[in-house]
Amino acid sequence: MAKEKNEKSYKGLMIRIIVAIIFLGLLFSTYFIKDDIETYLNSIFYPEVSNDISNSKLVMHFINVGNADAIAIELPNGEHMLIDSGDNNNTSREALISYLDNNFFESGEEKTFDYFVLTHSDADHVGGAALVLQTYKIEKCFRPNQYTEAEAVEYNITDSKNIVTTQVFQRFVNALEEENCEVEFFTVNSDINFSDFDINFIAPLETTYSDVNNYSPVMILTYAGVKTMFTGDAEKEVEEALLNLYDGYTGEYASSVLDIDILKVGHHGSDTSSTENFIKALTPSYAVICTDGEAYGHPSQTVLNRLENNGVKNIYRTDLNGNIIIGVSEDGVISANLGTYTKGFKIEWYQLVLLIGTIGLVIIFSVGVKRKKKR
Ligand SMILES: [Zn+2]
Predict the structure, then answer these.
(1) Are residues 9 and 115 in the same domain?
(2) Does residue 309 belong to any structural domain of this protein?
(3) What is the longest distance spanned by two Cα atoms in the chain?
(4) What is the CATH number of the domain that holds 229?
(5) Structural domain of residue 244, as residue ranges?
(6) Fewest CB atoms less than 10 Å from the CB: which of 205, 271, 282, 294?
(7) How far does residue 374's CA lie from ligand 1's centre (Å)?
């Protein structure tokens, strides 16, 4: 009798183990649709963001290139724009080129940028510029009012603040000459206008700045009533000048020029930019910070709090969200393709597997056990 009982419980245990193995196998096989599961769940928990960018005619890719900027844009007319080129190291350059080749350009498509905007000469913006010029066809390059020493002589530039002596900037200028593309030193008159979208340059407002970051253009891309502001690394000084120009510093923040929807946060989220008054004037719903989350203490907690306190619902960071894609449809609907979410929180596949796995195993090994004991 005892032997029979033992055999029975041994058999029962074997069945439970087999069921557990099949269960775990099925559970882990969901790894292959991990991204879909995460996207689906996060879209339920954060329904204000649609993860589907397939209806978007304007698609902006904020590429994860470290504590640096690289933003590739599919414009509504099918043209391509690139703003900055990542950092001056191989990891960043490889991340940029690999993303552009595999995720930005469609296969078989001619790899062309109709506009390449280099915001300013810092290494974390110009780092991959020479490579970009050599790798892709660039129709037109917008460059800041900054010159190499040789160019300064050629263009009769005398203020040393406009002269850049770094090797990485020199390599960019050399590549520019070799590739022979159209070049424009951008100003507030560099606007790009089409029937259904506009890119307005509202800064730089000066020709010479003591801080290199402030040479950055501030551009507003308007499409289907949605405005996106690109800031490069422009700092407080530029923000204040823009507030003076467009808001008269009334504190009422009524300017329609500065009232935007999506903000590429200035200078990697540093507190040298994104002043309280500026954020209040912009009232963005979306903010994107291009950062590795480590270098120079970027992004600043003060700036993160400021964005949140001013009602910015969606704060995306390349260090937390990876590559960030934001799309705008013909009807002005904004979609974000992250699969990951804001404020450092995201439902991840492994968390689900842990939860369901634990519950499942508890059920498999406990159901029926108590009842048996009672008998
Ligand atoms: Zn920078």
Answers:
(1) no
(2) yes
(3) 105
(4) 3.60.15.10
(5) 47-340
(6) 294
(7) 70
Tokens of 199: 């890119």
Distance 352 CA to ligand 1 centre (A): 37
Predicted confidence at residue 107, as pLDDT, reads 83
Q: How far is the CA of 80 from the centre of ligand 1 (A)?
A: 22
| Residue 246 Cα to ligand 1 middle (Å) | 25
Distance 296 CA to ligand 1 centre (A): 11
In this structure, the number of other CB atoms found within 10 A of the CB of residue 47 comes to 8
363: its two tokens: 């059920």
Environment class of residue 265 by beta-carbon count within 10 Å: exposed (0-12), middle (13-18) or buried (19+)? buried
**How far, in Å, from the CA of 225 to the mean position of ligand 1?**
29
Please tell me the predicted confidence (pLDDT) of residue 341.
41
| Distance (Å) from CA 123 to ligand 1 centroid | 8
Number of domains in the chain: 2
Q: Is 345 inside any structural domain?
A: no
Å from CA of 332 to ligand 1 middle:
30
Q: Are residues 20 and 154 in the same domain?
A: no
333-366 burial, b at 16+ Cβ within 10 Å, e below that, comes to ebbbbbbbbbeeebbbbeebbeeebeebbeebee
- Span from the CA of 155 to the centroid of ligand 1 (angstroms): 26
What's the pLDDT at 247? 72
Residue 343: the pLDDT is 36
Q: Measured in angstroms, how far is the CA atom of residue 10 from the centroid of ligand 1?
A: 65
Cα-to-centroid distance, 270 and ligand 1 (Å):
10
Asked whether residue 42 is assigned to any structural domain, the reply reads no
Residue 319: exposed, middle, or buried by beta-carbon count in 10 A (0-12, 13-18, 19+)?
A: buried
Residue 288's DSSP bridge partners are: 264, 316
Distance 67 CA to ligand 1 centre (A): 7
Taking the C-alpha atoms of residue 117 and residue 52, their distance in angstroms, rounded to an integer, is: 28
Q: Mean pLDDT per 10-residue run, the chain (375 residues)?
A: 73 92 95 85 62 86 96 97 98 95 89 98 98 98 98 96 98 95 97 96 97 98 97 97 78 71 97 95 95 90 96 91 92 80 61 94 84 50
pTM of the model: 0.78
